[in-house]
Amino acid sequence: MKILDIPKTDILKKMREILGNAVHKVTIAVPDINDLQDLHLYEVRSSVNVKIMCNIDPSWEDDAELLEELESLDNITIRLYEDRDRLLIDRDGEELLFSIVGSREDNNLVIYTKDPKHLAKKSKFDGDDRFPYPYVFKPPSPPDDFSSAAQVITPLKKEDAQENVYCQYCGMELTKGDQFTHSC
């Protein structure tokens, strides 16, 4: 078995190539907002909906300026993602590149596919947005302290057409009304 060290620059170059073929929707995850500069997001068609997850430190002037520039584009949505553990691009549900960042700059585990069977399982990698209310909050203590939130991800059964949400602490199935008020 041969292990290849794939540098981050090569991964970002491939992501830029994939992004150039986007038609409808693209999901991107990068460790830092500055990595987005290598993707040339200004060249993406305005009809393409781009969702981005990255680490942003608004106290740094460069991060704040870049965030402001990207938010000025109507087709781009940016969400804070504090973990610096992955590089990901999912183009139109037809092409996926997923990389787990290694301990060194040039050591990344990379998965690239256009296979429809692989793409059907992609939600395991980039978060699962099938749930109408994906976040369940821990009961606040003290009151008004909503600092702890976690995304609930549970596998769906093929025969189970309804999507259910479960408490991440006790495993209890939550009804629509219980999703924000449940306490274990």
Automatic annotation (TrEMBL):
This is Uncharacterized protein.
